[in-house]
Design a protein that fits this description.
One of its GO terms (molecular function) is methionyl-tRNA formyltransferase activity. It is found in: Mitochondrion. It catalyses: L-methionyl-tRNA(fMet) + (6R)-10-formyltetrahydrofolate = N-formyl-L-methionyl-tRNA(fMet) + (6S)-5,6,7,8-tetrahydrofolate + H(+). Methionyl-tRNA formyltransferase that formylates methionyl-tRNA in mitochondria and is crucial for translation initiation. By secondary structure, the chain is α+β, with helices and mostly antiparallel strands. The chain folds into two domains: 182 residues, 3-Layer(aba) Sandwich (Rossmann fold), CATH 3.40.50; 93 residues, Methionyl-tRNA Fmet Formyltransferase, Chain A, domain 2. 26% of the residues lie in helices and 21% in strands. It is built from eleven helices and 16 strands. The chain has a seven-stranded mixed β-sheet with strand order 3-2-1-4-5-6-7, covered by helices on one side. The longest helix has 21 residues. The N terminus and C terminus are likely disordered.
């Protein structure tokens, strides 16, 4: 079905002057010249203080927390911070819709499906985990522009998957940035507020998302309470320390036993394993590794494996701890459960598949009796992408 985009605001838009030119208020805040405050080109008074009319753009759990905070502020009639709250989200293959849509429907908030952005009048836009570039024409329709709640300390990890890359690269410190959206490029606008937090040791991307979503929601409300002042004090992002957080491709989940260390594989598991299972190859069959753990040195001592040269991908069952031990580039990782045709514990996998290779009369072939790197066709990798959050 073809979706038509309606005109965003009516004839009395507060956002543009004659011929669609930006209002003096927005031009001043955006550093484009003009006098702050007053009226726009059509004589419509621009609000200088709350309550604000907000249009929210978001999709996932991280964005849902920001929307929840905005809705709570709207319901708080004593504070009078938010007067109007509408929501824009993207299409979802799930009948329930994405987390933001689910929350908006439950809270009886108006919901529009991108690229439809409604036809109301708004003071400011808010974006969190939206994953779509917003046009300059759309941005300039808001007197106070559009704010972005981004789960990293910009300019580190610009892009759609900052939390995943924070965990994947072993960062010890992260944070949230409230920034001003600029057209044509992601995550390059001025910083209005930024706070840092330590990354909890061994935390998954999902666990970190929960921490950062709450921090981001509180920071957003703080900025909205002093919006004009926050915008006037915005600072440009540093040119040093820029890194990018692209979407995670399907090929990223395929473990490379000969190339990746045990720490790299465990970080990969914590970064994406709870979203998409890591994969490898077992006797020409794709197998998913569902529950990965660190291996205690005492376990390796039990198996008398120290000092022996073992081929990466080799699999050994440790009966006492009931885990599969898999050799990687520099050591071993543990696997508690896998999925072949169905979900199997390490003990089930050993009894059904691994044990026959270790019977006394068998002569196991090393190339078959180990996990091997699964190489996805280039074409398939290009088609299958997953993005986090902000995760």
């Amino acid at each position: 079905m073809r979706v038509l985009v309606r005109r965003c605001w009516g004839p009395r838009s507060v956002c543009g002057g004659p011929g669609g030119r930006p209002s003096p208020q927005w031009r001043a805040l955006a550093g484009l010249g003009g006098s702050p405050g007053g009226e726009d080109g059509r004589g419509v008074r621009v609000r200088e203080k709350p309550p604000w009319r907000v249009l929210f753009f978001g999709t996932d759990q991280f964005a849902r927390e920001a929307l929840r905070a905005l809705h709570a502020a709207r319901e708080n009639k004593e504070e009078e911070l938010i007067e109007k709250l509408d929501v824009v989200t993207v299409p979802s293959p799930s009948p329930k819709g994405l987390p933001v849509k689910q929350y908006a429907v439950q809270s009886h908030l108006p919901v529009y499906e991108w690229p439809d952005v409604g036809s109301g009048e708004y003071d400011v836009g808010v974006v969190a985990s939206f994953g779509r570039l917003l046009s300059e024409a759309l941005i300039l329709k808001f007197p106070y522009g559009i704010l972005n709640v981004h789960p990293s300390c910009l300019p580190r990890w610009r892009g759609p998957a900052p939390i995943i890359h924070t965990v994947l690269h072993g960062d010890t410190v992260t944070g949230v940035t409230i920034m001003q959206i600029k057209p044509k490029r992601f995550d390059v606008g001025p910083i209005l507020k930024q706070e840092t937090v330590p990354v909890p040791p061994k935390s998954t991307a999902k666990e970190l998302e929960t921490v950062l979503s709450r921090l981001g929601a509180n920071m957003l409300i703080s900025v909205l309470k002093n919006l004009p002042e926050s915008l006037s004090k915005g600072r440009q992002q540093p040119t040093e320390g820029v890194t990018y957080a692209p979407k995670i491709s399907a090929g990223t989940r395929c473990i490379k036993w000969e190339e990746q260390t045990s720490e790299q594989i465990l970080r990969l598991y914590r970064a994406i394993g709870t979203i998409i299972p890591l994969q490898t190859l077992w006797m020409d069959n794709t197998i998913k590794l569902l529950d990965l753990v660190e291996v205690n040195s005492s376990v390796l001592a039990d198996l008398k494996l120290r000092g022996e040269r073992v081929t990466p991908g080799s699999v050994v069952y440790h009966k006492q701890s009931q885990i599969l031990l898999v050799c990687c580039k520099d050591g071993w990782i543990g696997v508690r459960s896998v999925m072949l045709k169905k979900t199997l514990t390490a003990t089930d996998f050993y009894n059904g598949y691994l044990h026959p290779w270790y019977q006394k009369d068998s002569q196991p072939q090393p190339r078959q009796c180990r996990f091997q790197t699964l190489r996805l066709p280039i074409k398939k990798q290009g088609k299958k992408n997953c993005c986090y959050a902000t995760v």
